[in-house]
Amino acid sequence: MVFFISVQGLNFIKLCQKIVQNSKKNFWRLRKYKLSPKTNIISVSKKLKVAPVLIIREILKRREYSRNDINKILRKEIPAPSELEELIDLACRNDPVYSPLGLELSRERGEEGENLIKLWLESKELKFERDLGSGISFPDFYLEKPINIFGNHIDWIESKCYFGEKDELIEDEEQFKRFDSMGKGVIIYWFGFEKKTKRFMISGMDFRKLLPDQLKSKVDSLLNFVPKEFNHLIN
Q1: Which residues pair with 201 in a beta bridge?
Q2: Predicted local confidence at residue 126, as pLDDT
Q3: 150, 206 in Cβ contact below 8 A?
Q4: Domains of the chain (ranges plus CATH)?
Q5: Which of 84, 101, 134, 161 is deepest in the core (most CB within 10 A)?
């Protein structure tokens, strides 16, 4: 049973997660595959189940480009080899995860989820500490005083701006265990989740119910957003 009210944008998020899962599982196959500037990159991507941009990265790596230079080529900060320009553009247009645009959108999506939580806490005049990326195991929001959410006393909040599939739930649990010493928390899986676990989890649609009217539209925008550049991949 999926604990989720379907919204526009879910298919896009699931597509991105599937690309990541497949690429992690099958990348080893790419290392044994013959690649050239004439490679039909979309066909190879589907055959090997590896993201198109990862194939481009492998081609450039075999030409002994450094990781830093490969990143600059993909971002068009330095020229690409002329015979690879069209191949790189094609890969980026068809990769919503590892392309520069895909990476930027993912970062922005995560930041927007956290920003909505921040705005909600501030609207209730609640004090909290933030995860400042110090490398120390710390939830996104640690509350100065526990609050009640749907009948649960909460000490911390963690934001996950994707769909909580089985693999993600298992992988994320290792992170959540490190938060247990800080009390009980709530995990917001913005795009829903496959099944309940012992953790207190809510979806973005659940969280929306807690918000003042002026913030609800921001949740709608987050959950329904499909970037026009990648719209062709889900139609």
Answers
A1: 187
A2: 96
A3: yes
A4: 10-95 (no CATH), 102-226 (3.40.1350)
A5: 161
